Amino acid sequence: MENITLNLSMNNSLKGVFAMTGDAQCFRFTDSAALKALMIIAYSIVMVTSIVGNTILAFVYFKSKSMKNTVNCCIMNMVFADFLLTLVYMPRMMSRVFIGLKWVVGGIPGLVLCKIVSLSHEISICVSVLTVVVIAFERFFAVAFPLRVVISRKVSVGLLCGTWLIALAARSPMFYGVKMVRFQSGDLGCLWFPGLIFQTERAIKFYHYFMVVVFYGLPLLFIITLYTAIVIFLRRRTGLIDNVTRRGALATNRKVTKMILAVITAFLLCWLLYFLLLPLDGFWNGSIPCGLYFVRFFLGHVNSACNPIICLVFSENYRNGISRAQRQLKWHNPGRHILRVSSTRNRSVSNMELLSVRTLETDESSEYSRATLNSALQHGEHCV
Question: Which whole number is the average pLDDT over 61-79?
Answer without folding.
Answer: 89
